[in-house]
Write a structure and sequence with these properties.
Strand content: 5-15%
Number of strands: 6
Number of domains: 2
Distance between the termini: 26 Å
Number of helices: 9
Largest sheet: 6 strands, parallel
Length: about 220
């Protein structure tokens, strides 16, 4: 699907965090390796048994706010997920194309809003280690609204909070169900990140255009200034 953005028709750019502005390698390591290993050791399970238990637990709450909630997982698994997140903080890194793109958006007068499902503690730890906040105009965690990005009520609340016009908004994320939710709400441009984890092969989107390097968007962005 071809990615063609008329930048003069865009006022606001909404950006996901994990896998979109930050390398998803952090989260994949944390949830798919560290948590299962820690849980296995605590419960006296084999790695395979722990993976099986966690797979069911993760799947049961996918696309709900609990899936992203560190407090929920701490209670559910009997682990101090917040402390583990703090300890792993230095692993959080920006994508190489993030800062050039965010700076170009600023130069062209676009409003840059972070819209993440990440838990506020997760967000704070990642901001501390990446300096991401200085390149954004507003940072929003869906936890403060009570709904994840998969829920239309979240989009209504964010539009009310920010005053954004859906018809003049670009949204970038690495989850197709979330891009679908944004499109359903009426967000004009919904773009998927094809390489959210630097250590994995590119992914494809069925219903949305994708990009693997924001720097490819900068020439057209700055040309329309």
């Amino acid at each position: 699907m071809h990615l063609d953005i008329s930048w003069q028709d865009v006022d606001t750019v909404l950006l996901d965090m994990d896998g979109t502005l930050l390398d998803l390698a952090f989260d994949n390591f944390f949830w798919q390796k560290l948590v299962p290993e820690t849980f296995a050791a605590q419960q006296g399970l084999t790695p395979e048994e722990a993976q099986s238990v966690l797979h069911k637990e993760y799947h049961a709450v996918q696309h709900t706010l609990n899936w992203y909630c560190l407090d929920y997982w701490s209670e559910r698994l009997g682990l101090d997920i917040c402390a583990m997140t703090t300890q792993q903080g230095p692993r959080a890194v920006l994508r190489e194309d993030t800062v050039p793109f965010l700076d170009a958006l600023k130069k062209s007068g676009k409003r840059r809003i972070l819209l993440t499902n990440a838990h506020p503690h997760n967000l704070a730890v990642k901001l501390e280690h990446t300096g991401l906040a200085s390149h954004l105009d507003l940072l929003l965690s869906t936890h403060t609204f009570g709904y994840p990005k998969e829920d239309q009520r979240l989009w209504q609340a964010v539009a009310k909070e920010t005053g954004l016009c859906a018809e003049r908004t670009l949204f970038i994320d690495d989850s197709e169900p979330i891009l679908d939710a944004a499109a359903t709400f009426g967000i004009r441009y919904c773009v998927g990140v094809t390489n959210p984890d630097s250590g994995l092969a590119d992914k494809r989107y069925l219903r949305h255009p994708g990009t693997n390097d924001y720097r490819n968007l900068i020439p057209s962005l700055l040309k329309e200034m």
